[in-house]
């Protein structure tokens, strides 16, 4: 089970990524950092491996969480 401090750290990390200009996706739908963290909290026994999408200059443009079973 994810601990409160782990969820907080994850939210801060995702917010920082979004502020840098990358778009967060969950199952193909654009989401906020908070929505993504809430989904991870609900599905706490799942391992999350995002896909990092970079542009030609190597800048992160998208962070995609796909195949996440939402309950």
Protein architecture, described:
It is a single chain. 37% of the residues lie in helices and 23% in strands. The longest helix has 16 residues, at 4-19. It is α+β, with helices and mostly antiparallel strands and 71 residues long. It has a four-stranded mixed beta sheet, with helices on one face. The chain is built from two helices and four strands; from the N terminus they run αββαββ.
In short:
It contains 2 helices and 4 strands.
- Unreliable runs: none
Structural class computed from helices and strand pairing: alpha+beta
Q: How helical, in percent, are the residues?
A: 25-40%
Strand order in the largest sheet: 2-1-4-3
Shape by Cα distribution? globular
Number of helices: 2
Mean pLDDT: 83
Alpha-carbon distance between the two ends: 15 Å
The radius of gyration over CA amounts to: 12 Å
Biggest β-sheet, characterized? 4 strands, mixed
Order of helices and strands: HEEHEE
Count of beta strands: 4
Percent strand: 15-25%
What is the topological layout?
Blueprint (H helix, E strand, L loop, with lengths): L3 H16 L3 E4 L2 E2 L2 H10 L8 E4 L5 E6 L6
Parallel strand pairs: 1-4
Antiparallel strand pairs: 1-2, 3-4
Which features characterize this protein?
four-stranded mixed beta sheet, 71 residues, alpha+beta
């Amino acid at each position: 089970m994810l601990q409160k401090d782990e969820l907080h750290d994850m939210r801060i990390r995702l917010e920082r990524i979004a502020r840098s200009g990358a778009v967060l996706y969950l199952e193909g739908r654009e989401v906020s950092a908070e929505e993504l963290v809430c989904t991870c909290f609900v599905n706490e026994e799942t391992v999350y491996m995002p896909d990092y999408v970079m542009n030609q200059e190597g800048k992160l443009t998208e962070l995609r969480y796909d195949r996440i079973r939402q309950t």
